[in-house]
Design brief:
The protein is α/β, with parallel strands linked by helices. It is built from five helices and seven strands; from the N terminus they run E-H-E-H-E-H-E-H-E-E-E-H. The protein has a single domain (about 5-145), classed as Rossmann fold, CATH 3.40.50. The longest helix is centred in the middle third of the chain and has 22 residues, at about 85-105.
Length: about 150
C-alpha cells in the first residue's frame, strides 16, 4: 500500500507529528521543505493537493478561509492549540487512527475537500461547509473503558 503522506504546518507540536508517524504516515514538515518553507499555507495548499497529500495545521483562521472560499485541497486536519502536550498527543493519535479508518472505509480520495478537526467535544468533519460531530469524547471514553 502506498504510504499516506501528510504535511505538517510549521507550528505543529512534535508530539502531534510523532502520533501520526507512529501510525505509519509519511510525515513531512513544511519547515524542512525547500519549496514550501516560509510560505503562507494559501500559497501551497493546492500544490500539496496535486501531490495527494493532506495537511495538518493549528491555524483555525486559515481553515475557516478554506471552508468559506471553497479552496480545493486533499484533506486538512485541524489540531487545537493551547492544549497540554499529553492531551494533544493523545487526541492526535486518536485523529490519526480516525483518518486511517476513514480511508479504509471510504478510500484515499475521500479525504479531498474535507476538514477533520479535534474539538473539545470530539472529532468533527466539515464537508461542503457543514460541520458534524463524528466521534464524541463520551463515545471515546466508553470505547476505551474509561
Amino acid at each position: 500500500m502506498k504510504p499516506i503522506v501528510a504535511y505538517f504546518d510549521e507550528h505543529i507540536h512534535p508530539s502531534v507529528v510523532n502520533a501520526f508517524r507512529e501510525q505509519r504516515y509519511k510525515c513531512i514538515l513544511i519547515s524542512k521543505t525547500r519549496k514550501y518553507a516560509g510560505l503562507d499555507e494559501r500559497e501551497y495548499i493546492q500544490h500539496i493537493r496535486a501531490e495527494g497529500a493532506f495537511f495538518i495545521t493549528g491555524d483555525a483562521e486559515f481553515v475557516k478561509d478554506v471552508i468559506r472560499q471553497k479552496i480545493k485541497h486533499a484533506g486538512i486536519v485541524l489540531i487545537p492549540t493551547g492544549w497540554e502536550d499529553d492531551t494533544m498527543e493523545l487526541a492526535a493519535a486518536g485523529m490519526a487512527g480516525f483518518v486511517l479508518g476513514f480511508i479504509d472505509r471510504e478510500g484515499r480520495r475521500s479525504l479531498y475537500d474535507k476538514v477533520f478537526a479535534i474539538e473539545d467535544d470530539g472529532y468533527h468533519i466539515t464537508v461542503k461547509g457543514i460541520n458534524k460531530l463524528e466521534y464524541s469524547i463520551d463515545r471515546l471514553e466508553i470505547d476505551l473503558g474509561l
